[in-house]
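Structure first, sequence second, as always.
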């Protein structure tokens, strides 16, 4: 871990903290909630040792990156502006992109809106959902699961923060990272997030030092920056109307655990396995369903995830060097 370099880059009007290591083709890692660059610690070390320049920022609102106070400054356009400015400042034309959770959602938008900057994508947990022209994502979530669904509970500024303030930060992080309940998390107001089960024993892949690292950073910043991503969901829906129906047209590998809450949302498994995802992501080349893995898959199964990323990037590099019919044969051999 001491080999990982930490720097600050000015981009899109904010100062962004990045962790980086290695030389070679660049891989950009995007974390989720409630996480940090630290979520990718294993992949940074593993893939840098294999000849890649690995870069993991604290996204806007997280960790040592600036957190604008205006909740409307957390749209996907703000986040993508940060990331394009980041790779510009590092002198990088194109990256291999890796995302998880909210980072996966940002990654889908990155590939849709700026495919010229992406060589290939490995995305985890959150499938690409095409924009519904008639109903926002928050409304769809509310219709499916009710007002107690966590995404709906996060919408009102200050409410989740007040709930979280009733608990020690380390306890909050522990609840999120160790949860293995695949059911959609619905949190009645009278119970609050403190009602989520506590796991007295940490799994083998998560240490007290890991929990304390996250807790220390969130003690400094609070959770509002990360929660503002959820509060911009409806605004994202409004602002992206012009891109309704656009496909993701970069090479993609998708990875999810079979115990992930996102994989167990009604209809998602069929969407992935019966052609729905492929329809909207036509260059989807591989899907990996990891048995016995829950949501925070890049930390729970670090070696397997690193191997998935490495193998897919190698295949994409090999395909890029092929031409004509040879290229198409390679693509077809990877297809579902």
């Amino acid at each position: 871990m001491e080999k990982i370099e930490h720097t600050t880059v000015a981009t899109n009007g904010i100062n962004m903290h990045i962790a980086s290591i290695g030389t070679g083709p660049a891989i950009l890692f995007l974390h989720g909630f409630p996480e940090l660059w630290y979520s990718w610690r294993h992949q940074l070390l593993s893939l840098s040792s294999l000849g890649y320049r690995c870069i993991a920022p604290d996204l806007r609102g997280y960790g040592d990156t600036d957190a604008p106070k205006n909740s409307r400054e957390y749209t996907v356009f703000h986040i993508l502006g940060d990331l394009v400015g980041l790779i510009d400042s590092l002198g990088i034309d194109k990256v291999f992109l890796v995302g998880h959770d909210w980072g996966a959602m940002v990654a889908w938008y990155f590939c849709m809106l700026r495919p010229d900057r992406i060589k290939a994508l490995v995305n985890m947990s959150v499938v690409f959902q095409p924009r519904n022209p008639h109903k926002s994502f928050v409304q769809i979530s509310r219709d499916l699961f009710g007002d107690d669904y966590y995404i709906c509970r996060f919408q009102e500024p200050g409410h989740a923060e007040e709930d979280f303030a009733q608990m020690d930060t380390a306890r909050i992080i522990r609840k999120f990272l160790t949860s293995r309940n695949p059911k959609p998390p619905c949190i009645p107001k009278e119970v609050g997030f403190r009602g989520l089960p506590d796991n007295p024993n940490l799994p083998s892949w998560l240490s007290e030092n890991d929990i304390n690292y996250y807790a220390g950073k969130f003690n400094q910043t609070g959770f509002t920056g990360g929660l503002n991503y959820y509060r911009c969901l409806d605004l994202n829906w409004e602002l992206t109307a012009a891109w309704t129906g656009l496909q993701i047209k970069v090479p993609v590998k998708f990875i999810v655990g079979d115990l992930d809450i996102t994989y167990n949302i009604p209809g998602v498994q069929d969407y992935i396995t019966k052609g729905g995802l492929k329809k909207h992501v036509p260059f989807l080349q591989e899907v990996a369903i990891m048995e016995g893995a829950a949501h925070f898959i890049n930390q729970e199964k670090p070696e397997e995830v690193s191997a998935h990323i490495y193998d897919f990037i190698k295949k994409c590099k090999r395909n890029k060097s092929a031409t004509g019919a040879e290229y198409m044969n390679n693509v077809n051999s990877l297809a579902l």
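Margin note: The chain has 15 helices and eight strands.
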